[in-house]
Each structure stands twice: as C-alpha cells, then as structure tokens.
Write a structure and sequence with these properties.
mainly alpha; Arc Repressor Mutant, subunit A
Length: 209
C-alpha cells in the first residue's frame, strides 16, 4: 500500500520545496535511470534536505502518486471546463453536426492533455498501474460519466434512454482506449486520424438507436 503525501504545504516556502521535489521526480522519471530514483537522489537534485523531503513524502512512491494525482486533476479541470461550456451553449440539441463538433472538442481535449508532455504522461500512467493506492483514485471514466449523464439527459431526453448506462459505456470505452494508446501506441496521438476515429466511435454508439 502506498502512503500519500504526509503534509500539505501551506506557506510559500514549503510549497516551493514540494514543487521542487515534484519537478525533480518528473525529470528523473523521464531519464529512466532506476539507480537515480531514490529519495536521497531526489532530495539532492531538488536542493532540499532528506528530512525536508520526508516531512511531505514518506517514500518515493508517494511522490509518484502525487504526480499522478496532479496530472489527473489537470485532466479533470480541462475536460470539466469544456463540457460545462458545451452544456451552457446547448448547441448539441440543434443538429447532428453540432453533436459531432462537440464530441470532437472533447476528444481533442483528451488527447491534448496527454500529448502536451507525452512521454511523462505515458510514464505516469504506467506508474499508476503499478502502484497500490491507499484508496481507489477517482478515475477519469467515472468522472466523465458524471459529466456526460446530465448532458445526454438534456440533449436526448431523460425518459427516452438509459443515459447513465450510455454515458458509462462511452466514458469507459474512450478512457480505456486513451490509456491503452498512451502506453502502447503513444505516437497515434499525433495523427489526425486517431481523433477522427474516436469521434466516429462515439457518434456511432450514441446514434445506434
């Protein structure tokens, strides 16, 4: 079981210490040198004492957990913001083209979040799959399901379909495909055809009835 961050920094100085530790750890992970991935090495590169590091992180795995959480938080923030804008505009009620355009926006944002620092995102996903969290993380699929469900209710009607199930299946399918691609075929994120196929997959499922 991986312990989480021991203390949450509140002062600017302590926040700077934690940020330095996180930045150095990300750099070490990108170097892919296992011998450098120790708390002592991380503290040395970050310019902090090992005691200071242990004030905030009980071990190196907990630093990775925090990096994974930060990546996920950024993903949630950006997808949530985009879907909120789509929901407010309500353009997906107007036509099939509106729905397709909105799905394209969401899929493009999913890809963008991961591809801005593609190799680090890939490493963090691999690390996340190998770590044991003290509590199950709030996964992207369940997060996206919660956002899509009310949107589908509004667009397609709450009484016509089981929109929770539709949202759940679509969210899990897309999230699983994104994660698998990130680990096995990350260069697909750079191809426009990958976005096109995600849109086609989503449209095909939502319009099958």
């Amino acid at each position: 079981m991986t312990d989480i961050q021991r203390r949450i920094p509140s002062q600017s100085r302590s926040k700077a210490v934690v940020n330095a530790i996180l930045e150095v750890t990300a750099h070490v992970l990108l170097e892919k040198k296992k011998e450098n991935f120790t708390t002592n090495h991380i503290a040395d590169l970050a310019g902090v004492s090992i005691g200071s590091l242990y004030q905030y992180f009980p071990n190196k795995e907990s630093i990775v957990v925090r990096l994974v959480e930060l990546h996920q938080e950024e993903e949630f923030k950006r997808i949530s913001s985009l879907i909120t804008r789509i929901h407010k505009n309500r353009t997906c009620k107007n036509s099939r083209l509106d729905r397709e355009n909105n799905i394209r926006l969401v899929m493009k944002e999913f890809i963008s979040v991961h591809s801005e620092n593609l190799e680090l995102a890939r490493i963090l996903h691999i690390q996340a799959n190998s770590l044991v969290y003290p509590e199950p993380p709030h996964g992207t699929a369940s997060f996206l399901t919660g956002l899509l469900h009310p949107l589908l209710d509004e667009v397609d009607g709450a009484d016509q379909y089981d929109n929770y199930t539709r949202a759940y299946i679509l969210a899990n399918s897309v999230d699983s495909l994104i994660q698998t691609t990130l680990i096995d075929e990350p260069l697909l994120f750079t191809k426009p055809e990958f976005l096109d196929e995600l849109v086609s997959l989503s449209m095909g499922y939502l319009e099958r009835l």
